[in-house]
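worker-03 picked up job from queue 'complexes'. Input manifest follows; two sequence lines, order preserved.
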Amino acid sequence: MSEPRALCGSSDQPSATGGVRTFRSPVSPARRRAFTETLAAWALAGPAVFFLFVLFFMPVIGVFVIALTDWQFGARSLSFVGLANFREVFADVGFRASVVNTVVYVLIVVPGTVVFGLLIALLIESGKSCRSFYRAIHFLPFMATLTAMAIAWEALLHPTIGLVNQTLAAIGLPTANWLRDENTALPVLAVIGIWQNLGYAMVLFLAGLKSIPQDLYDAADVDGADLWLDRLRTVTLPMLGPVSMFVVIVVALRAFECFDTVKVLTQGGPGHATDVLLYTLYRESFEYLRTGYGAAVAVVFLVIVVTLTLVQTRVMDRKVHYQ
Amino acid sequence: MSLTTSANRLSPPAAILRHAVLLVAGALILVPFVWMVSLSIKPPGEIFRASFSFWPAQFYGVENYTKALTQAPLPRYMGNGLIVCALILALQVLVCAPCAYALAKLRFPGRDLLFGMVLIGLLLPHQVLSLPLFILGYQLGILNTYAALVFPYVVSPFGIFLFRQFFKTVPDDLVHAARLDGLSEIAIVWKIMVPMALPAVIAFSIFSVVSHWNDLFWPLIAVRDQSLMPPPLGIMAFKNEEAGNDYGPLMAASTLVVLPLVIAFLAAQKWFVEGITGGAVKQ
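worker-03 finished. Artifact:
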């Protein structure tokens, strides 16, 4: 379809029907077809274009405008204040705690999720039986409503009647008030994060494992790598390299977006112990209505997430070269 | 000793070890689910006596689940979730499929620019947009309505991207034949492209429904009325009202909120795994 049009698009032959009319149409049928195709394309894409503008591009510009001005919710006028909102945000002890907490949370969730996800994927793939059964069990938390599951976790972690403390007490280990102790609250949320995302990492690794050509294993066999561990070291793990990098970034993105468990279980407390970026963004924007502050936090969050996503895209491009 | 034979089969001890580790890991993963269901069928006395037993001495499930369904407007929350998810999905397919067709099969000036816009949209985390979207909702006077829950998601850059990938694989000859048969471009979208790309549509539907059924962030901002709350927000409100002390009904409510997706997932595991991870794996 496209090549013929490109060929005859520039030709100025009179149209076949042109002779009947009193004047010759200046537009060739090919041109006219190209024109109607353009018209049709924009008509088809029109609603999507409109909503992309209204729901994505205007809001993203809006966030920057709010972050750079003194506009408050309900105000009729605004004036440019430069980086004042950002200065306020970065000078705030609460915000700095929030950044540190988010980084700590990500640094626990990412390795935990990736390592456990990889181990489970390798174990599932190493045998033939019950694959989909094990996959289903480990994937379940990823699609179960996290708000509801957070409530179940709260019951598990209850200081007196929770299963966790009961078990620890039964085997003579010290117990804790997990969600109310500022030393344990964030790590416990991270454990829930690992629990939730592990299955996601697992299925991504399973897809990666499937794409490793059998020839490589056969070649490794010939080279004398007949131990499972040898094959793992010489074939599986090197071949999983690009996938692993990809999983790390995807899980990191999800970890940065941690919100539900914080909102349901700790509300950022005790103190600022579990304040994470997205929760700070929510609280400042919608509970305290500190619009400028909230928008500045949103910009910081946007920069982090976009940077990570761009790195991910580069990794995906590299992966194509590997194959 | 070799763990595997040349035929890629595990030796019996290794196979047993594999099952043992996977079963233990799986059991640990399931603990929160099991505990939630266990508490949901226990009377308050037994919950606070704290025992390890899964099954209660006195079965209290009927009372707890009745309370969850009547005291909190749980059926209402679930109905809201259903309405919101269905509206979002219908609008997304309606808006995204024609645009994806234009990007995949039509040649027009600005196509690359449009695709670039979709990619940028794909890049933006939705939470960042929440403040301007909240203001927009306020200006339109639709906050605290179903429309508020739905409008930010009317277009999905991921949907356009995914549909475009699949539409590209539909042979051009089919499109030509349809045009010769007198089908309009919009008819080609709905009668040829969407049916041909049904796997993509199903995968996207699962992705969309799961994300919006589970979403807490935006509903928290968009609605205040209990009668409009989708399940995650509703169950949070229920928890706060009950002050977290009436565990039985709360766990029953949690179980009921999680249940629809769990059942659907177990029934169509392959589709779910593909739908939810599809965006990450396919490029």
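worker-03 released lock.
Residues 1-7 of chain B have pLDDT under 50 and may be disordered.
Chain B touches chain A through 106 residues (CB under 8 Å).
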